[in-house]
UniProtKB/TrEMBL annotation:
PROSITE patterns: SAM_OMT_I. SUPFAM superfamilies: S-adenosyl-L-methionine-dependent methyltransferases. PANTHER family: CAFFEOYL-COA O-METHYLTRANSFERASE 3-RELATED, O-METHYLTRANSFERASE-RELATED. Gene3D superfamilies: Vaccinia Virus protein VP39. It holds the Pfam family Methyltransf_3. It comes from the Bacteria. GO terms for molecular function: O-methyltransferase activity; S-adenosylmethionine-dependent methyltransferase activity. This is Putative O-methyltransferase. One of its GO terms (biological process) is methylation. Keywords: Methyltransferase, S-adenosyl-L-methionine, Transferase.
């Protein structure tokens, strides 16, 4: 399999499933205006986020890493009336571009954009009563992912879901000698997950228009006292 085939297959599903409207299509092009590679999630990944939020019946969503608002729109469109999404972006020009896309997509009224360094903003969310979140999507600078995971745990309810993007990094995550900060971050993140009794998690490798990567899905378990009793062995 090659990147050409992965892109062709994503393209086929994008066409046949056809659930990207002009507002999403515009947000998907945000990188062009900034002369950047396409760093947002793909259509199929955005739809997966949307479906996870629906399955989760999420009323409060936190996103770390807005960029042009593409994943934000998919997530916000899963919210019920009165639902809220907080999204954090470090780069003001990206946040301003995202604001236009969110307005065009008709979700600006339910999205609270915060501009700044996520590790400065996350402690404020703990104080201002925005939490607990039902779903957290982590998709910002990769080296800080372990600390974002800590905050996601802190700000989520039991039963909450945490999704972390770009955890495979083209396979580099398996190389313990790779000095790249993102790879170090994703290895540290997985070690944290493994040592954390409050979550149950899995990581799935993916291929597609965005290359070879993967995501982690973690569910926050109820406190031990609140867990259903295991049936007595027969
Ligand atoms: C991969 S992009 C997000 C893509 C977006 N979630 C989507 O799928 O459409 C990562 C974003 O995180 C932002 N970012 C990087 N470091 C950050 C930080 N320390 N705090 C907040 N945002 C940050 C970048 O500016 C960039 O816009």
């Amino acid at each position: 399999m090659t990147q050409h085939q992965w892109s062709a297959v994503d393209g086929y599903f994008d066409t046949v499933l056809g659930d990207e409207d002009p507002a999403l299509a515009a947000a998907a092009q945000a990188h062009i205006g900034f002369d950047l590679p396409d760093i947002g999630v793909s259509r199929s990944q955005g739809k997966l986020l949307h479906l996870l939020a629906l399955v989760q019946r999420a009323e409060r969503i936190l996103e770390i890493g807005t960029f042009g608002g593409y994943s934000t729109i998919w997530l916000a469109r899963a919210l019920p009336p009165g639902g809220r999404l907080v999204t954090i972006e470090w780069e003001r020009s990206f946040a301003e571009t995202a604001a236009g896309h969110l307005a065009r997509a008709g979700v600006a009224d339910r999205v609270d954009q915060r501009v700044g360094r996520a590790l400065d903003i996350l402690p404020d969310l703990a104080k201002t009563g925005e939490q607990p979140f039902d779903l957290v999507f982590i998709d910002a600078n990769k080296p800080d992912t372990p600390e974002y995971f800590d905050w996601a745990l802190e700000l989520s309810r039991p039963g909450g879901v945490i999704v972390v993007d770009n955890v495979v990094l083209g396979g580099a995550v398996a190389d313990s000698d790779d000095p790249d900060g993102g790879v170090r971050g994703m290895r540290r993140f997985h070690e944290k997950v493994a040592a954390e009794p409050r979550v149950s998690a899995t990581t799935i490798q993916t291929v597609g228009a965005k290359g070879y990567d993967g995501f982690t899905l973690a569910v926050i378990l109820p406190a031990p006292d609140d867990r259903p009793e295991a049936p007595a062995p027969r």
